[in-house]
Design goal:
4 copies of one chain form a homotetramer. The first copy, chain A, is an alpha/beta fold. Chain A folds into 2 domains: about 160 residues, Rossmann fold; about 180 residues, Dihydrodipicolinate Reductase, domain 2 (2-Layer Sandwich), CATH 3.30.360. Chain A has 13 helices and 14 strands. In chain A, helix 1 crosses helix 13 and helix 7 packs parallel to helix 9. Chain A is globular. The two termini of chain A are about 15 Å apart. Chains A and B meet through strand 7, strand 10, strand 11 and helix 12 of A and strand 7, strand 8, strand 11, strand 12 and helix 13 of B.
């Protein structure tokens, strides 16, 4: 069986590199196009990219010429790691031209007819694609994954929301520097430091989970009705966002009941999607875990880890969540979405 | 005027060293005794101590012989940085023998008749000392300062509590490694990492603020009636605890009203205590401050800094607080308490 | 084919953990015994060990009972990660009792009849084992690997020594904290810091390479006649020792000639030993590499990387070397030695 | 006595900020002009500068308008922290217009008639200014300080050179991120890492010391005849360059003899220049010092610290040197040079 041709938009950036790395040896997809800014276009990839992965540039793309970000790439799917300053229009152009656009950028996430998908949670939101194509008159489509810090919070919340309902969520994040791209955070700002502010981050974290946990009803996504309050911080960690979460449930549940529902296996696991972890939510038993340094690569970085589940004196329960921000929180999420699209027949 | 003789218990430990450093050139106090474990006793201080300050060992104590922790020291006041495994009995022995014990250890903090004092907030709690001495039949006394993470939270809360009342407080801390003493946190545990657990820390943070903000009424401290929920984390920061706080007030207040009361000047400032900052609560205007690396030494490490005051979608307001955990959060706090005792006539 | 039973001495320590991790799924060896101090003996491994690897404890040993370090273990080979304070006698006892002891400890490295082996360089030194057994009247044997910082220096030097001869070597190391074990380096000593001293390290680095590069002649190891001068530093890196090396060759060679010999493939590669990298010496072409963060896991941590080869105005050439200190520099080295012993028929 | 008016070129950059900070409350100088790129010109300083010091912006300059870097500033002296891409021409323009230019940039350091000055070592090189002015037909002058890593090496070498002569110097540096300015080193490049390359750095370190240690003879600087070989590395340290040095002396000297000459007091100390430390070279006695985290601010960052003096098996002696790269290694050096110029009558 021949592989599906895929392209990477913003291929020289931090997220783009992660796409390239994760797609090496992918069983279904083959990288046939790399696109980036005009400054890089025309150069061999190895020359254009400030490669910052801990494995070498895949041989198959090392000498591939970087192309401009216009919809003339030889592929069916494009993964977008474009900067939000240009992602909006570029991604629309690709969708209009018939490409399936899997985007990690924020621009279209909250669009009415763009599904914001975590396959284990809301795979049925893909049904909105039909409406998207109809309203926009696009031959292709745009499917978004969430912001990285949203991802781990929502993966931990989803089972609680489905079983008990959720009313209120307080979350404080401690986010890795890789989340800011490259060059990203200057070392003078983060060595021996905590930066208690990340531009636009709290806004995303306070609204995206409700869309993801929402219901598809008659061509619309009805947002879940809970409220999120977020404090976002940058810390001196390379990879892995840690989140301290307190949650108020809609109906009372014992600690054991809550503990027992913390698992996340559904369609992606049933379909055996290549990037799906066997369980996307893993509970740590040690009292001081999860920790980014030791746990972030669990399940190849595709799971969310939860620990320290305990009562909260103000809301109902509190816990710690952790995930790999550039894998499950970015490139890996988009790839899993593409696998779901393929398995569900959305892609030729 | 001759200075008052003071001793340091646990003088070779991390907090003990900070006492020694901060007391160098103190206008009222003079270190005349250094006490530590039997292993150190008998050695010159410079030989016994693994000095980890960024200034040299004060010349006046460099060759002073370390003594055992028994109440035979040539001084009136003892500052205790003893480990909690031995602080309880040792401090009582000193109080019984007539010393004023200013303790940073947790052992006696919650004792019914031991004042837990932040001079700008509850200097009137010193009145409980009379009861303490009467009930215990001590000639001396024990006065405690709070846990480091309690300190900054409480200093930020106190003006809100007094003006508007406080009902609920959610706090997530990101605490410096110096808070764990020396050798303390192994580097393999914290480089590139967050440890989402600190033994006993959340328990302290959830109960100490209520005692400090409480009222002295007829020989008793009546605890303030608010509830605190804490998540405590260790991060790769040398000095400075950062805290993300959300608070529900007892009565409605506008952002401007809240902003306008964030100041902490009272008796210590009026008395001109040597270690008192001109204002113990400083509001940062930049949107990404306070930060430990740049702000922790503000006001010689004796102030709490607050920033990012904004509405909280769940409680009423949220903000970030920061303070120097081994100065205002430990040794500096005990010294300020001693200055208050002296100024109020509690020490001969 | 049934696997050879192996034990780990000091199994709860940092090096011991790495043995346990690297031996999981080993094609030839199976961990059947875990030994540690009396404090740990009798406990299940998972309970006794402060596990600090980024993968879980292997299921096969999780519940295995830790035994005392006495030669009554059910295995043929023991890998020793014992602390040097006790390794000397314990390892001899095992050798006397017939075990093949593969030691990472320093105690016996420089013993006259103990081979100090890097299989790609001096596999013929194993011939000294016959003399060792004869002189000591041991049924088993002791085979040592070098100190971690010695490993990478010597792997880079060996091809130069063999081809051109080496007269003088200046080396400055920047060593990872994992080299000091656990708890090892306190975080207060290394965050934002360089510690320009490691106890005993320079002494090892200045004498071990000469033994490894030496010749086996008539039952003796004749040391290579070059001189090494070392400066050793600890830096805030988790894994990977970086070394800046200047070398004076015995005979003149052009930069191209030097460059062309930088490869290290010999018997281990020919024999296809499971842990042998395809080339044990890898030259980086980028001008700012190798770097621990990006390169340390190259070839599963079993290769030494070299970069920045250039003329030295004082000696002849200078370059940077890097290797994984707890894999090729410790546990992986001992395992590779055991594989060599097995392949060469030294182990039943 | 009224203060001398001084300006800062490149005032918004990392070195420029340090000038502004160190000149606050200077007894002789007063900052009357701040100049920077066109992008900043016209804005109040507080708005133009990404202030990264751990003290607030001095009140006196907070609202001062930033001016373009053209020689129309209201001052006599300009301190230049300009980027080398523009420093060359800009500094000449100021010198031509009559300003005394104290530059930290590399552009003019090696110019034949520009003195490269460390006041404790080669204050007599100022005599070359006469030739500079004559040859260039400038009314003003350019006086340079060395590269930061050069500074500490040369301060440690100078007493050895003067007393025993020096033939060869091997140096490996471990340099702080603040040396690269702001934003400078991306955090993804340095967290848990060592970067064994700094552009152009080794070249500077291999030639500047010879000029500084050289002799002024008849209107020329005759370079000292020793050879330097340098390896330069970036490490995860905020402030402070650590250097491992091996040196071959021109004539034999005992360890005690070498130890006894390690002091650096001369004209700046005799003149009592405000920024001169009482001794510019301090020997640490502890076996693991100096260390940046604990020692970098010794003598207000204006001294070089030396430790671990011991024999070198290849050259004669080896030791560790440390200094504050943005104070003594940059802004503080230029200010001390200006003080020397003033005291020696070079400035009106």
């Amino acid at each position: 069986m021949s592989k599906i041709k895929v392209g990477v938009l913003g291929a020289t950036g931090a997220v783009g590199q992660k796409f390239v790395k994760l797609l090496e040896n992918h069983p279904w997809f083959e990288v046939t196009a790399l696109a980036a800014s005009d400054r890089s276009a025309g150069k061999p990839y190895a020359e254009a990219v400030p490669w910052k992965q801990n494995t070498p540039i895949p041989a198959a793309v090392k000498n591939k010429k970087v192309q401009p970000c216009v919809p003339e790439l030889d592929c069916k799917i494009v993964f977008s790691g474009l900067d939000s300053s240009i992602a909006g229009e570029a991604e629309e152009a690709f969708a209009r031209a018939g490409y399936a656009v899997l985007t990690n950028s924020k621009n279209h996430r909250m669009d009415r007819y763009v599904p914001l998908v975590i396959p284990e949670i809301n795979h049925d939101h893909l049904r909105i694609i039909e409406k998207q194509q109809h309203e926009s008159n696009w031959k292709g489509m745009i499917v978004a994954n969430s912001n990285c810090s949203t991802m781990f919070l929502t993966m931990a919340l989803a089972p609680l929301y489905r079983t008990f309902g959720v009313e209120k969520v307080m979350v404080t994040t401690m986010q890795a520097v890789s989340g800011a791209g490259y060059p990203g955070v200057p070392s003078l700002d983060i060595l021996g430091n905590v930066v208690p502010f990340i531009n636009d981050e709290e806004e995303k974290l306070e609204i995206e989970p409700q869309k993801i946990c929402g219901d598809y009803v008659d061509g619309e996504i009805r947002y879940a009705p809970f409220v999120v309050s977020a404090h976002c911080n940058r810390v001196a960690v390379e990879d892995g966002h840690t989140e301290c979460v307190s949650v108020k449930l809609a109906r009372k549940a014992s600690l054991d009941e809550v503990r027992s529902v913390l698992t996340l296996k559904s369609l992606p696991q049933e379909l055996g999607l290549p990037s799906a972890p066997s369980d996307a939510l893993i509970v740590c038993e040690q009292r001081d875990r999860p920790q980014p340094r030791f746990d972030v690569n669990t399940a190849d970085g595709m799971a969310t880890l939860v620990g320290r589940l305990r009562p909260c004196p103000i809301l109902d329960y509190k816990f710690v969540a952790l995930g790999h921000n550039t894998i499950r929180g970015a490139a890996g999420a988009a790839i899993l979405n593409a696998e779901l699209l393929k398995a569900q027949g959305y892609i030729g």
